[in-house]
Amino acid sequence: MIYLLEDDDSIRKLVVYGLESQGYQAEGFAAPEEFWQALDRQLPELVLLDIMLPGEDGMSVLKKLRSAGATKEIPVILLTAKNSEYDRVLGLDNGADDFISKPFGMMELVARVRAVLRRAKTDTAETEYRLGELYVSPGRHIVKVDGQDVNLTNKEFEILCLLLENAGIVLTRDILMERIWGYEAERENRTLDVHIRTLRAKLGEAGRRIETVRGVGYKIAGDV
Length: 224
Prior knowledge:
The chain is α/β, with parallel strands linked by helices and 224 residues long. The chain has eight helices and twelve strands. The model has no long low-confidence stretch (mean pLDDT 86).
């Protein structure tokens, strides 16, 4: 799935149609809030991101994508009418994988999409975690307990992967909030505790491995 965040209706429809005609699944969004809601439902393979957007600009969206665990590795191609060297450097420095200036041809766009996806697949090493009855494949978005699939929300999955990545290490609440919800996350709410509670419940017996370190944060016990 490819997500396109573009407020121009004609460009958005043209790009989605062009991608689908080449065999890709694509979905377009006119506003950032629609895009963020879609991310909670499904993570895309690639994001096409316009810089000039209503409400929240593309650079801000890019920074948030790169600051969150589940989305930091998703390839992003910037689409913009801006064509200065400064804008290109700024976009690439903020984590964009490529940069296409408007107006652009669909064949060029599709070629760039193919190249970025091919590079991403080559660069991504398959990591797997096995901890007793728990198996997690971050790259394939798979969680199993005793061989049975476990369905997690994106945020629950991010938390679990981050804990496994740092197995045996206590992660503070601030670190977890910043890595999962981004730099604008509010530190005083109970969102993290609620997600930990539902994550433990869904993992069943494996949920006992997530330990609370009172007054500090959480860790996952054991060697993976």
